[in-house]
Amino acid sequence: MHFSLTDLAADITQNCAESGADLVELAIEEISPGPARQAGDVPSKAGGPVRQAGGVPSKAEFRFIARDNGKGMTGAELDRAMDPFVTDGVKHPGRKVGLGIPFLIQTALQSGGGWKISTVKAGECAVRGSKDSAASPGTGSVTGSAAGGNAGTVVEAWFDLANVDTPPVGDIPGLFRTVMLFSGPAEIVLKRKRQGGGDLDYEVKKTELEEVLGGLEDVSSLALLGKYLRSLEDE
Amino acid sequence: MAMTLEELRKLRETKKTDIQRREAEGKEIQVIVGMGTCGIAAGAKVTLDAFINALDENKLVDQVLVRQTGCMGLCHSEPTVEVIAPGMPGVIYGNVDASVAKEIVQKHIQGHELVENHILNKPAADILK
Fold it and tell me: Quick one: how far is CA B89 from the chain centroid?
């Protein structure tokens, strides 16, 4: 199981980077309920106010959306990706588990969150597979319909930060630096929003950073990139 | 206070001489961190940050590339890190936490000596001589 929500986001986004995509997008949205913290509020591990004076859980939410224009999956492939006891066996011959998406689903469901995966397989006759946690918690719902659109996958997950079973949010600038280092996609776009508890709204693009810093894999670039990403969270 | 891209560029300019020197020499040392589900669950992000900090502290930023990859197939020993350095056998290290990362920078990259107890694919003894 992953330690933090940013680890889940890193894992899923790494899958995006491996999908043959040339564009990967990761959006992180955090909502901390305002206005000010009231007496009796209990701070969550993530630092936001999570419970109001009356003991009613507030709507503190963490949401991430990872999107790629890679090869996509068929409905059957999506089913297999959700099965913890199935993996493609290419990178680890003989191993019988693949836990990326199962971890995400388990974490979302155990903590009052949810998830949604939509995918369009490249080269297929534009069949869209989609699953989410809304219709039937625990298993997700399946919809398969002929649809237009380009190949790729969108994974969205949201978490109730007030729930005691939700992991801590984790290190967001660290997540962003990790994601920027994923090899494969020519362009990686990070979108960050936070409402309440200090509003944030910024976007970072890999190509822009490369133009400024040079190769991102240089350690000197990585050190500066870390400073830059942390400064954006300080606003 | 949030930096702008322009400020970041200026900060980069101050390191310009470094960049020129590096471009002339090319980078030959690579540190590759496994960032699959297994690696992330075992704390590979902390390992990655530790490598960047240790390389920065030891003034090795001009000689080393830090890269990421997916699962290397050694999920039992995550976080795993491959280190490729000239004159040294390519080595995959396992169970690399922040303190082992520091040790790899000091012993393997600076001292040209393998870090015992964390080697997953130990090369043949004659290669090591």
Answer: 15
Q: Which residues of A fall below an 8 Å CB-CB distance to B?
A: 1-3, 7, 10-11, 14, 18, 91-93, 95, 98-100, 103, 171, 174-175, 178, 181-183, 202, 208-209, 212-215, 217-220, 222-224, 226-228, 231-232, 234-235
Distance of CA B32 to the CA centre of its chain: 6
- E-assigned strand segments in A1-151: 23-31, 61-68, 114-120, 127-132, 141-146
The rounded distance, in Å, linking the Cα atoms of B82 and B119 is 10
| Angle (nearest 5°) at CA A99 between A98 and A101 | 110
Residue A139 tokens read as: 């298993």
Low-confidence ranges of chain B (pLDDT < 50): 24
Distance CA A190, CA A198 (A): 19
Task: Identify whether the C-beta of residue A9 lies closer than 8 Å to the C-beta of residue A178.
Answer: no
pTM of the model: 0.79
Q: How far apart are CA B3 and CA B121, in angstroms?
A: 43
Within a 10 A sphere around the Cβ of A226, how many other Cβ atoms? 18
**Which residues in B lie closer than 8 A to residue A220 (C-beta atoms)?**
15, 18-19, 56, 61-62
Cross-chain residue pair A92–B60, CB shorter than 8 Å: no
Specify the pLDDT at position B124: 62
* CA–CA distance, A121 with B39 (Å, rounded to integer): 27
ipTM over 0.85: no
Q: Return the beta strands (E) in B26-103 as ranges.
A: 29-34, 64-69, 81-84, 91-93
Contact A212, B8 (CB under 8 A): yes
